[in-house]
Design a protein that fits this description.
Blueprint (H helix, E strand, L loop, with lengths): L1 H14 L13 H16 L7 E2 H7 L6 H9 L3 E3 L2 E2 L5 E2 L4 E6 L2 E7 L9 H5 L2 E3 L25 H12 L21
Antiparallel strand pairs: 1-4, 2-3, 2-5, 5-6, 6-7
Helix pairs in contact: 3-4
Length: 188
């Protein structure tokens, strides 16, 4: 009976706007979504006195795809906490700086919240401060060597043109110049 009265009080406060959250243009949907995200983060939070392993934490906040990838990165020396290489079972704490080399770039994050379960991306971003440098820009590569259908096999001249467009593989001194005067002698 006491719990029913408590539920009535909280729902009345919620209807009256007593939650302390401002309602956005979408009529409270954003507030509901952030409340759900906060509830998910609280559910994933470890109990008081319980620690969280570094491999589990970097998986939970979606820095790596699987927990085993996190453990492998730790064993390979790709994870540093406060400048020290750590093992997968290292207990991470709030305020630690975690450096992770993964997928060709270095991620530098500061732990804001400990979680032990994998959560959605919007919630995971709230668990750390990202101090990583921006990723390098992707280089746009023009399609090379596309031939019209039915033109047949490329000739030697066509092949040289394709290699020249690809980056000079067949240019002077390149690999396609064997047998010409001035090239390396035949080993026979």
């Amino acid at each position: 009976m006491a719990s029913e009265g408590a539920d009535d009080n909280t729902s009345a406060a919620g209807e009256a706007g007593g939650t302390g959250r401002e309602k956005g243009a979408s009529g409270g949907r954003e507030a509901r979504d952030s409340a759900d995200a906060a509830a998910a983060a609280e559910a994933a939070r470890p109990a008081s006195g319980e620690s969280v392993r570094i491999d589990s934490w970097i998986w939970s906040v979606r820095l790596v795809k699987t927990r085993s990838m996190g453990a492998t990165a730790c064993r390979g020396g790709h994870v540093r906490v406060n400048g020290e290489r750590v093992k997968p079972a290292y207990s991470v704490r709030v305020g630690d700086e975690v450096r992770l080399r993964h997928a060709g770039r270095e991620r530098i994050v500061v732990v804001k919240r400990l979680i032990r379960k994998r959560v959605g991306a919007p919630v995971a971003v709230e668990c750390y401060v990202d101090n990583s440098p921006p990723p390098p820009p992707r280089v746009a590569v023009a399609p090379v060597g596309i031939r019209d259908r039915g033109t047949g096999r490329p000739t030697k001249r066509d092949r040289r043109e394709i290699e020249r467009l690809r980056g000079g593989l067949g240019g002077p001194g390149g690999p396609g110049e064997s047998g010409r005067p001035g090239s390396s002698p035949d080993p026979r």
